[in-house]
Structure formats: C-alpha cells, structure tokens
Write a structure and sequence with these properties.
NADH Oxidase; 9 strands; globular
Amino acid sequence: MDFKNNRTFMKSGFDLPEREFISDQERGLPPPSVEKAMDSNLRIIELPVVDKNIMKHSDLYDCLNNRRSRRNYKDLPITLEELSFLLWSTQGVQKMIPAYKNTGHITLRPVPSAGGRHAYETYLAVNNVAGLEKGIYIYLPLAHKLAFYHSVDNLPDKLIYAYGGENYQEEAMWLGRAPVVFLWSCIPYRGEWRYHGEAHRLMLLDIGHICQNLYLASEGIGCGTCAIAGYVQKAFDELLGIDGENEYVVYVSAVGKVE
C-alpha cells in the first residue's frame, strides 16, 4: 500500500502553492451557524449549573498520571450534575465573541479549535443517567442544555453492533453496558468555510482536544472513559439520524463510574 497521500494529509500545506485555495470566508460568504439548528418541538432538559466542587480528584497531576482507557463500569447511574460537568468540560461555551470582519461569531470553550470553528456536535446515547429516559440526546452548548432527540429500541444492542458489526459482538458488550456514550459528529462546512482543503486535518486535531478533556474530566469526578475510532460508520450515523455527508460521526467515547 502506498501511504504517501495519507502522510501528506497529515502535514501543513498552508505555504504550498499547489495547495492554495480561496475559502468561502475570503469570498465573503456568510459563516455557518456555531450551533446546529434544532426542531422547536424537541423536549429541552435543563442541566445543573457546573460546579467545580463535584471534582473528587482536583489535582491536575493526579488526573494526568491516572488517565487510562476504562471499560469496566459499575452498575450505577451517572448523575445529571456529573453529566453537566463532562459536557461543559468538552464543549461548553464560556463566551461568545461577536462577528468581526466576516469572521463569524467565535465561541470560547475549555477546548481549543482551529480558528474558533468548533465543527463538532455532541450527541449522547443514554442508557443510565439519573433523571433521563433512555435514548439519544444532543447537547446545546450555547444554552448549556440538552434536547431529547429520539428514543431507540434496543439501544444497547445497536451500540454493540455499531462498534464492529457482526464480528465483534462479544468484544463490544462493554459499550452496550455503558451508562452514557458520547458521540461527536462533525459538521465539516464549519471548518471548510474558513480553511477549505486544510480544514479536515485541523478538525481531526480538534476532536483529539475534545476527547482528551473528557478523559481528564472523567478522572476528576471518579468516572472512566474509553474512546473508540474504529466502528461501523453507517450504523452510528443512522443511530443519530444524520446524513453521513454534511454531518457524520468521527469519534465515540463511553463513560461510567469506576472503582
């Protein structure tokens, strides 16, 4: 296999004449929304105010030193207070900066993003969160709220299948048992609007920042997480009801309480 093109993709090309581009931002086209438009009929769930006192392990060194991928979860629910903290830690909006010279609105969050584009939406597959019914939710970062997206029959089985299809059912049982699964979808035009062909490499860097914050925040509140990047793409996209082209799942990470 020739890996040359894949290796080139990982490199910065902003200075290369053959990779020059004119972005939609430079063309003067309006920027995409910083948050996905929601059906006004969706049920909105208020989240508790983020409270740093929820931290059980507040020493940053300990959180870094203890960070591991954890798949063995207790049969205990995640609380709304814990979920609120994890959502804020990964995609919460701290401040909105007004548009300036056709930059579009910029959101400041606990995670960095190239050009402040923040191309990701956070969905949750909820199996066992106190006060929430099972199903798919989407996080509304501007308001720090949840919207109930839809219910799913046999949600654990669908998560297990999406992990690896028919061949990895036994290996994927842990995912079906997780109290909550974070599913990050990318809306690529948010990055493409500014960075054109360079956007996709940058957006992959961004999702690494997001997931690492989930790892550290989980360690801090006595939970564990395990990210997966190998899965059945169509199965996860269909689980969320997204088209797989203008929005598609890029990364998944389960969360549960651990010893």
